[in-house]
C-alpha cells in the first residue's frame, strides 16, 4: 500500500536529486530521503562523481535514527564496490526497515541486484513509486544503458519565421540575454556538445559552459568540469587556433582516411582526440557517431549545429528533445533556415509534441519531441 | 472621484459591448449599464446596425428607475439623428443624473458633441474611465476616423520552421480544427477580407464566414452578413468561376488601365465592383489600397494573402496586428516562407511585441504588433 506520505517523500527525494543536474557527470542524479513516519531524519543527494552517494549522505545525517526507518531513493541503490562501497550494504548496516526505489538500475547486468541484496537482508522493498518522474532525472543514463546511445537534445535559436541567421551568416544575437543564459544551463546539463566544422569555421564558438553567465540556479556546479566538445569534421579542417580547442577536452570525428593525414596529426598534436567514422553524401553517419559517443560514456548530448547537421538529426529521427528558442522577430525570407530538411509533401511533415513551453525573457522556449 | 464601483460598472458595459463583436458592422461595438448605487437597473449593447443603440436598450430596461441614475457607456452617446434618434437626447429625457463615457466619438466632426449636449442639460459627465479597454472594442472604427484607413490584421498559419506550404503549394492543413474555427471567428469580426489573385488562382478559397464552423461563442451573429471580399488583381485575372465570387459582395482592385479591358468588364458583369489603383513592381500600392478601403467604410481588414502581399504589408509597416497560428510541425526548408521579406542585416530585423499568446487546440496563436 503506497500512501500520500510515501509519494511526498519520494517527490522530495526527486527534488533533492535535481540539485545535481549540473554536477554529477558521468554519474546519474540521485536523491534519498530517510523518514520515520512523517518525520524526515536524513536527506541526501549525489553531488559529484567520487563524492558520497545520496544514500550515504542521507544515512550520515540520520545517524542512529536510520534504524527501523524508511528510505526513499530515486534509483536502485548500487550493489558493487566502485569508488565508494555499495549503498545497498550501507542501508542494510544502518538497519533501515523499508526501501522505496523509484527506478531500478537501467544497466541490464546489475539491474535488480541492489534491491535483491536489500530483500535478502530482510528489508521490505517497493519498486516503481514515481518511476516516470525519477527516470526523467537521468534520460541519458537510462537511454544509454538501454540502447548504447546518448540522449540527444538539439538546440535551435530561431525567429518566428523560422530563420537562424541572415543569408550572410550574421546571427548574433537572435535571442535575448535570458535565453542565452538558459543555453549556458543547458550546456552545463550536458555530457558533450556536438557541432560541425562548418559552424567552427563560420562562427568560431567556444561551446564552453561559462558559469558566470548561468545565473544563480541554487544547484551545485562543478567548476572544473566542461562538457566534452565534439566536432564532426570529415577532413580535420578545424583550425589549430579555433576557440573550441582552448582548454582541451575535444573529440573530433573525421573520415577514417583522414586519420593519417597532416591536418589530423596536427590536431592530435594539440591533444585533440580523433576517431574515424563513416561519412555519407550529406555528412557524418550520425547513427555511427551516436554509437561512438555512447561508448565514450556520453549520457546527454547537446547538438548545437548548423542547418545541415541539425537537419540530418531531425530527418533520421534521432532527436529526443528539440529545444527551440523562438525570438519574437522576423528575419526575412532570405535568412537561413533552421534545418536543411527536404520535405516534398504535407504527409511527410515532421510532427512535434510540445513537452514544455515557457517564456524566457522576451523569447519563448519550446521543448519538443517527435509525435 | 472615480470609485471601484464605477470601474466595475464600466467593465460590465465593456463586457456587454463585446457581445456585438461579430454583428454590429459597420457600427461600433457599444455597451451601456445604468445603475443606482450598486444596483444595475438597466443593461444594453448594440447588436446590429439599424437596431436600437446600447443606451436605448439599457434605458428601456431601466424604465422609471433611470431617473437620477448613473449611466456608464463605452462610447460617447451620439448627438445626431441617424437611423435612430440621438442617444444623448434619450439619456436626458430619461432623467439620468450622471454619465461616465469611456471614450469620445473618434469622428473629429462630432467628437464631444454628445457629451456637451449632456452637460448642457445639467448632467454630470466624466470622460475616459477605462478608455484604453473601451477603445480596444473598436480599433478599426477608432483608427479609420483618425487616419482614414482600416485596422489591419494579417493572418498567417505557419509551421515552427516558418513555412506556410510545401514547395508545390500544398498547404491543407497546417493547423488543426480549433485554429481553423478560430479563423472563422476572426473573419466574422472583420469588415473585409483581402487576398491576392495569386491565392485565388492557386487555392480558390471562398473567404466567407461559415457560421456553423465558428463554434458557439455566446455572442450575437448576423447570418445575413458576409465581410466584403477584396482581391488585389492588377489584370482582372480572377476567373468567373472562382469560389470567392459566389454570394457576391466582392471588390477587385486592379490597375486603372485594366478597367476598360474585357476581363474587367466580365467581372463587372458578374456584379463585382472594380476600382483602379496604382501598382508597383512588387504588387499593389498597399497605402492607396488602404485609403480606398477606408473610404468604403471598412473598419477592420483581415489580410489572408500569399507571401508576396503579406510581405509587402510587413515591409511597409502597415500591419496593426499579426495573427500567427503556429502548428507544432516542421514543413522543411524547401517549404514556402510565411512572407517574402528581403532583409539583409540583423539590424533590419522585424521586431514584434507579443500582445497575446494562447493555445488553440494543438496550435499556438500569437497576436503580434510591431515593436
UniProtKB/TrEMBL annotation, chains A, B:
One biological process term in Gene Ontology: riboflavin biosynthetic process
CDD domains: Riboflavin_deaminase-reductase
Record text on cofactor binding: Binds 1 zinc ion.
Keyword Cytoplasm assigned: no
InterPro entries attached to this UniProt entry: APOBEC/CMP_deaminase_Zn-bd, CMP_dCMP_dom, Cytidine_deaminase-like, DHFR-like_dom_sf, Eubact_RibD, RibD_C, RibDG_C, Riboflavin_Biosynth_HTPR
GO molecular function: 5-amino-6-(5-phosphoribosylamino)uracil reductase activity; diaminohydroxyphosphoribosylaminopyrimidine deaminase activity; NADP binding; zinc ion binding
Chain sites annotated for binding NADP(+): 157, 173, 199
Keyword Chaperone: no
Reactions performed catalytically: 5-amino-6-(5-phospho-D-ribitylamino)uracil + NADP(+) = 5-amino-6-(5-phospho-D-ribosylamino)uracil + NADPH + H(+); 2,5-diamino-6-hydroxy-4-(5-phosphoribosylamino)-pyrimidine + H2O + H(+) = 5-amino-6-(5-phospho-D-ribosylamino)uracil + NH4(+)
Names of required cofactors: Zn(2+)
Keywords for this protein: Hydrolase, Metal-binding, Multifunctional enzyme, NADP, Oxidoreductase, Riboflavin biosynthesis, Zinc
Active site: 55 (proton donor)
Pathway(s) the chain acts in: Cofactor biosynthesis; riboflavin biosynthesis; 5-amino-6-(D-ribitylamino)uracil from GTP: step 2/4; Cofactor biosynthesis; riboflavin biosynthesis; 5-amino-6-(D-ribitylamino)uracil from GTP: step 3/4
Protein purpose: Converts 2,5-diamino-6-(ribosylamino)-4(3h)-pyrimidinone 5'-phosphate into 5-amino-6-(ribosylamino)-2,4(1h,3h)-pyrimidinedione 5'-phosphate.
Name of the protein in question: Riboflavin biosynthesis protein RibD
Amino acid at each position: 500500500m503506497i500512501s500520500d506520505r510515501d509519494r511526498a517523500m519520494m517527490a522530495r527525494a526527486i527534488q533533492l536529486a535535481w540539485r545535481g543536474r549540473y554536477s554529477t557527470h558521468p554519474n546519474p542524479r540521485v536523491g534519498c530521503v530517510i523518514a520515520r513516519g512523517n518525520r524526515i531524519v536524513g536527506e541526501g543527494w549525489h553531488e559529484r562523481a567520487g563524492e558520497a552517494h545520496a544514500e550515504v549522505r542521507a544515512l550520515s545525517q540520520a545517524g542512529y535514527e536510520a534504524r527501523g526507518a524508511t528510505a526513499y531513493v530515486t534509483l536502485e541503490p548500487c550493489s558493487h564496490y566502485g569508488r565508494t562501497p555499495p549503498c545497498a550494504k550501507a542501508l542494510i548496516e544502518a538497519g533501515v526497515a523499508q526501501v522505496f526505489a523509484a527506478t531500478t538500475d537501467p544497466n541490464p547486468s546489475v539491474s535488480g541486484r541492489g534491491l535483491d541484496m536489500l530483500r535478502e537482508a530482510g528489508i521490505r522493498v517497493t519498486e516503481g513509486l514515481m518511476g516516470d518522474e525519477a527516470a526523467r532525472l537521468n534520460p541519458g543514463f537510462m537511454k544509454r544503458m538501454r540502447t548504447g546511445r546518448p540522449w540527444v537534445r538539439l538546440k535551435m535559436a530561431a525567429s518566428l519565421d523560422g530563420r537562424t541567421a541572415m543569408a550572410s551568416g550574421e546571427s548574433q544575437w537572435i535571442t535575448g540575454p535570458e535565453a542565452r543564459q538558459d543555453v549556458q544551463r543547458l550546456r552545463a546539463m550536458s555530457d558533450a556538445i556536438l557541432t560541425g566544422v562548418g559552424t567552427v569555421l563560420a562562427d568560431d564558438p567556444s561551446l564552453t559552459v561559462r558559469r558566470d553567465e548561468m545565473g544563480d540556479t541554487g544547484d551545485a556546479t562543478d567548476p572544473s568540469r566542461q562538457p566534452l566538445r565534439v566536432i564532426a569534421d570529415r577532413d580535420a579542417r578545424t583550425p589549430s587556433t579555433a576557440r573550441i580547442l582552448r582548454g582541451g577536452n575535444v573529440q573530433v570525428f573525421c573520415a577514417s582516411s583522414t586519420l593519417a593525414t597532416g591536418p589530423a596529426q596536427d590536431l592530435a598534436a594539440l591533444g585533440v582526440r580523433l576517431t574515424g567514422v563513416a561519412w555519407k553524401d550529406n555528412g557524418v553517419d550520425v547513427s555511427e557517431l551516436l554509437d561512438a559517443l555512447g561508448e565514450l560514456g556520453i549520457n546527454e548530448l547537446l547538438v548545437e549545429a548548423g542547418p545541415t547537421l541539425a537537419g540530418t538529426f531531425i530527418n533520421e529521427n534521432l532527436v529526443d528533445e528539440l529545444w527551440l528558442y523562438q525570438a519574437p522577430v522576423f528575419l526575412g525570407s532570405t535568412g537561413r533556415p533552421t534545418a536543411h530538411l527536404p520535405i516534398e509533401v504535407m504527409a511527410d511533415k515532421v510532427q512535434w509534441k510540445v513537452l514544455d513551453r515557457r517564456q524566457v525573457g522576451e523569447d519563448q522556449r519550446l521543448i519538443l519531441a517527435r509525435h
